[in-house]
Amino acid sequence: RGFCSEYNNSDHYEKQVRIFGHCVVKNGYYYLLGLNEKGSMTWSIELYDPNNLIVLPESESTELNPVEIVGRLKIYMENNIAYACIEVESIACVSGTFS
């Protein structure tokens, strides 16, 4: 929470970003993963998709979907807890893998 409030007041909040990664869906939540060359996760960030732009089936973590996301760095609140996330403005499937 401390990180989120600090982030909320930073210069990065609300900035638009373009980022590549692998999109997975777990329990109705969307995540963008970065992978190393061996396919292990190196980072992840939650994706917030208020306009239902992401059309992916629930997937196991082994089913990876390389995508390009354009969105804004945001905070959203759930059960009084703040989460850093990317609010999706566009998503495109791409070929290849990223690390």
Low-confidence stretches: none
**How would you characterize the largest beta sheet?**
5 strands, mixed, barrel
Numbering strands along the chain, what is their spatial order in the largest sheet? 1-2-3-5-4
Determine the N-to-C terminus distance.
28 Å
Oligomer: single chain
The portion of residues forming beta strands comes to over 45%
Dominant shape: globular
What is the succession of H and E elements?
Answer: HEEEEE
Helix amount, in percent?
under 10%
Total strand count, please?
5
- By DSSP (H or I, 4+ residues per run), the number of helices equals 1
Provide an overview of this structure.
With 99 residues, the protein is mainly beta. Helix content is 7%, strand content 54%. A five-stranded mixed beta barrel has the order 1-2-3-5-4.
Keywords:
1 helix; 7% helix; 5 strands; mainly beta
Short description:
The protein has 99 residues and is mainly β.
What's the layout of helices and strands?
Layout: H1 2-8, E1 16-26, E2 29-35, E3 41-48, E4 65-78, E5 81-93
